[in-house]
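Narrative progress, year one. The postdoctoral researcher (J.K.) led the effort to move from monomer predictions toward full complexes, under supervision of the PI. The following entry was the first complex the group processed end to end, covering 853 residues in total.
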Amino acid sequence: MLWYIGRRVLQVIPVFLGATLLIYSMVFAMPGDPVAALGGDRGLPEAVQQQIRDRYNLDEPFLVQYLLYLKGIVTLDFGVTFSGREVIDVVAQALPVTFRLAIMALVFEAILGVTVGLVAGLRKGGIFDATALVTSLFVIAVPTFVIGFVLQFAVGVELGWLPTTVGGNVSFRSLLMPAIVLGAVSFAYVLRLTRTSVAENMSADYVRTATAKGLSRNRVVTVHVLRNSLIPVVTYLGADLGQLMAGAIVTEGIFNINGVGGTLYRAILQGESATVVSLTTVLVMIYIVANLLVDLLYAALDPRIRYA
Amino acid sequence: MAGVAASILAGSLVLAACSGTDSGNGGETEGGGEETTAAEGGAASGEIVSVNGVEPQNPLVPGNTNETGGGKIVDLLYAGLFYYDASGAVQNEVAESIETEDSQTYTITLKDGWTFTDGSPVTANSFVDAWNYTALLSNAQNNSYFFEGIEGFSYDEDSELTGLEVVDDLTFTVTLKQPEADFPLRLGYTAYYPLPEVAFEDMEAFGENPIGNGPYMMDGEGAWEHNVGVDVVPNPDYQGGRTPANGGVEVRFYEGLDAAYNDLLSGNLDVIDAIPDSAYGTYEEELEGRSVNQPAAIFQAFTFPEYLPEWAGEAGKLRRAAISHAINREEITETIFQGTRTPASDFTSPVIDGWSDSIPGSEVLEYDEELAKELWAEAEAIEPFTGSFTMAYNSDGGHQAWADAVTNNVRNVLGIEAEGQPYATFAELLDDRDAGTMTGPFRSGWQADYPGLNNFLAPLYYTGAGSNDGQYSNPEFDELINQGNAAESVEEANEIFQRAQEILFEDLPQVPLWYSNVNGGWAEGVENVEFSWNSVPLMYQVTKG
């Protein structure tokens, strides 16, 4: 088991190198001179532009720029943004906010999605099942920003139950609405996955055996059916964590959350390679760790899976 | 990356470049509606008022702050020689007087007794040292070009501003390279603020926790929480005319205007200085009269690069006039911008002293299908037109709707091919613009730094000027600008600048479209909100009951 984890952790190194190289080259390939656009319609004095280019090695060929960036990383220097802030500070500020938001969304979609999906799966074809399926389809069909704006206007502006925006006030209460918006689509998928999986397993042989042995229905459902049914759901949730971390741009914009999404979006528009690459790399790491956790959870869920 | 999501948001994201993305907004004279009475003497106690903002792009150093996000904050923290009141008129702040015989050498006398919030006195050196620092090439300050007219300034090497001379603690002289009648007008701008001695030890660190002499000061160490906001409190030692009537200002940063607007509706934000596109049609009703919509010092146009043969020469001149006559500015500002833009009637802005809507030649801006067709036919007789009319714009700035409307006008009236030419980002458009490889006209916008006519003219149309992106050159025009600069008074200068505009109407290097308006609003219970000539709400006089 430990051996397995060690091997998986070592895989991070090539992935890290590949990801940074790929992302760096993509930012590098973006057309337009980011420095020229810094001054708006008026532009900055040529001397100022040149100093910025020198400071960020923007005139160097691609490989030199990339290696200089890597050299910085090794000495834990992640570079500086165009506005003079340490990239590490920017990342350190944005990441925890988005992480809290993503975890809240994940908990919301997991608990609610699995519960509703389980009930729907157990009563396949009933009223509850049909309602759950139609509702989840609707949630998937409506774009996130529509759900976000409508909820913000109804709950925040009109009713005043929850804060309209987050801004600097990062609390459970202010993040509740954005987390629900962010997790809404995944909630629908988790619900449908769980329902299908549970419905399938209910007619499996081992369930009939367990019932014949005289186990109570509760025990059959929770220990046997649910455990087996959760394997595809856990896989989805693991991948979704990364998705939630990176894909919160719309939700963060609507609720004015100073997180990864908005920061990344701004950095891409401004062509700030250091910020884009550093943030994306962190996101790649999160993906890797989440996937490792999912694989380890398999062993807990399915006794047949063993990591040696 | 959610590409779709990003593009949807791009429309509502505010990029705070100096009018670079047409998301700036402007302001003029009326706002609060009633007379404002600033509290008498001393720092006022009262409620803290909040206003929307964006994360400044640079540390809060006057010489390096060239965008509205930082400018809004810096203007609260510092007091310059002069300040601009709501109407854009120049009022003395630290300056006792400014005198000149020839519009080239100015003697500036300061009031006694001003201090920075660290206790150090505001002297002639506070100004001269700050200006020298900003102008020095190797300091790479964004506002360095504001000093290019002063003797000793250089774009090629580090050189001291020899034109600045300290006479005594409260007097210094400025000698310009050539006469500039409106030089005093610009001295209220951010770039000309003084700095305390401590700033020069480490400018970047100073910019994180700046020490100024303005109506407000930072609310302690770390009052600037990056990407979140800045809190400022009244400066008890402030002695100028912008005395705070409230207990402080909270500038809260918003990624998108929609979020800020919703906060305003739910009472979580007191003042907003721009309205999101999505609320253009509804904000006046939703805010029940607590809103403002008036022209601002922002001019929008499109430029014909001089190097395009089909738009040059005698035929080109006729064609440009035809295009201008083919555009229905009234209709576009009404339907696409829902009245949040004002059709242009000159090359400057109505909020500027000396502005006129009846300059000879300005009738070229009138929508007239028949005349447009006639002019086009005349041009065809000289030399047939091949190709099409394209309008280049950057899609990240929300320009598509009006660019399509303008090209539709041209296509329908003149019967030629016309279409928008989108560039994904502003940076991409700049690549072609600055390399001189545009294939057709492109959008341009300009926001004034100081309320003077010439600020809209010389930087854009003078031969070889920094923002003369169409490479326009007309010796007659240049001569009039020089004459205006050498004039005895601002009034006399304005007359000459208006004559220079007549030449622009004749040549049409740029075709004026409209002035951006300032669209602002305030929450219930908030009073005395007035928007300044430069689109920024005068936060020092805002009160909350």
